[in-house]
Amino acid sequence: MRHNKFSVRTKDITLVLLLVILLFMIVGGCGLFGDIEDETYISEDENLIVVGISQLGSESGWRTANTESVQRVFTKDNGYFMIYNNARQKQENQFKAIRSFISRRVDYIVFAPVVESGWETVLMEAKEAGIPVILMDRSIDVADKSLYTTLVGSNSMEEGEKAGRWLEADLEKKGLSEETVNIVILKGTQGASAQAGRSVGFSAIAGKHANWNILGQEYADFTSAKGKEVMESFLRKYPDIDVVVSQNDDMTFGAIEAIRESGRTVGINGDITIISFDAVREALEMVAAGTINVDIECNPNQGEYLSDVIQRLENGEEVEKEYYVEEDVFTIENVTEELLEERTY
Ligand code: GYE
Q1: Is 253 in the pocket of ligand 1 (CB under 6 A)?
Q2: 119 pLDDT tier (thresholds 50, 70, 90)
Q3: pLDDT digits over 76-112, tens only?
Q4: Which of 135, 136, 137 to mutate to test the pocket of ligand 1 (most atoms within 8 A of CB)?
Q5: CB of 154 shorter than 6 A to ligand 1
Q6: β-strand 212-219 against 133-137: which pairing, if any?
Q7: Ligand 1, atom nearest to 277 Cα
Q8: How far is the CA of 32 from the centre of ligand 1 (A)?
Q9: Which atom belonging to ligand 1 lies closest to the Cα atom of 57?
Q10: Is it true that 45-154+300-314 and 156-298+331-342 share their CATH fold?
């Protein structure tokens, strides 16, 4: 009987011990239930370049293509070990990711800053750790430019100017240069350099035309749902919109849906001219169909450029402070069948 009592006690103790160990393993992040990344150990003999990548989110078709371009390049076959994190549009998550990269002593940190401001502290930590930081896609607003090594991205201000110059030429072609043009603008994420650059660039051209009447401009977060919602509010407020400037294709898709549901038409033969940015394949198909009048390209294929920069740094070469990817302007005249077939995004 004692034995049983004893064996019951032993069982209880064993169970409690097991639970305590389990609890320590979970809480202590020993990997049992920790983040999969914590499980990832980099075997020294593989001599791989370890790159920590903080992507800002997955809000648009463009972003998906941007992520794919990075994941396609930073592979073991190419000599890299990539630790990837999706910040889901939260700067706080990017701070955490960058700090985890620092604590793991990665060789390079690459990140797409969700907004321009607030990076000084975490980038100073990376600098003090001696880890080079490379900006991808978007820029940051820091007084101390030594906090990052280089930027691989797009010249968003130039993209905005391209949109303004296209509208000038289109109005000229239609003999409307002196007419009042009522414009609404769907802006991307507030505080994002892509949004700020495109806004400033377009405004620089619009400011030359007193007859260009910007009725309203609202943030729509680079998403289709928000683009539709904001466009619906514009349509309720402004009955005579002539032009929509939408700072990415996803917002454009939502805006076109809203315009059509209101009974109006879009594109080359429509009531409302559509100016879009990104030039993802789905949007270029709409350019070819005459639904979108013009699409200002923003090339998401930055992975190869990033790898090239890292290889230069590995070889001890000097690098430029910024590298802009090649970009085009697409209209029905230059969106061909073969271009659509070849398009990787
Ligand atoms: O235009 C949009 C994405 O930062 C250039 O972000 C990028 C922008 C792009 O959500 O589709």
Answers
A1: no
A2: very high
A3: 999 999 999 999 999 999 999 999 999 999 999 999 9
A4: 137
A5: yes
A6: unpaired
A7: 1
A8: 37
A9: 10
A10: yes
Q: Candidates 116, 189, 298: which one to mutate for ligand 1, based on the most atoms within 8 Å of Cβ?
A: 298
Q: Which residues pair with 45 in a beta bridge?
A: none
Q: Contact 253/280 with Cβ under 8 angstroms?
A: no
CA of 47 to the centre of ligand 1 (A): 34
Class of the domain covering 45-154+300-314: alpha beta
| Secondary structure (3-state) at 219 | strand
Q: In what order do the strands lie in the sheet with 80-86?
A: 80-86, 49-55, 108-111, 133-137, 150-153, 322-324
Q: Closest Cα to residue 322, out of 139, 192, 163?
A: 139
Distance 4 CA to ligand 1 centre (A): 68
CA distance linking residue 189 with residue 193, whole number of Å: 9
Q: Is the CB of 221 under 6 A from ligand 1?
A: no
Confidence of residue 36 (pLDDT cuts 50, 70, 90): very low
- For the chain, strand residue ranges (E) read 49-55, 80-86, 108-111, 133-137, 150-153, 181-187, 212-219, 243-246, 273-278, 294-297, 322-324, 329-330
Report DSSP state, residue 273: E
Query: Strands (DSSP E) along 90-204, which ranges?
Result: 108-111, 133-137, 150-153, 181-187
pLDDT of residue 326: 87
CA 63 – ligand 1 centroid, Å? 6
Class for the domain spanning 156-298+331-342: alpha beta
d(CA 126, CA 108): 10
* 300 Cα to the center of ligand 1, angstroms: 8
Domain positions in the chain are: 45-154+300-314, 156-298+331-342
Q: Are 61 and 116 in contact (CB under 8 A)?
A: no
**Entry pTM:** 0.86
| Chain centroid offset of residue 200 CA | 19
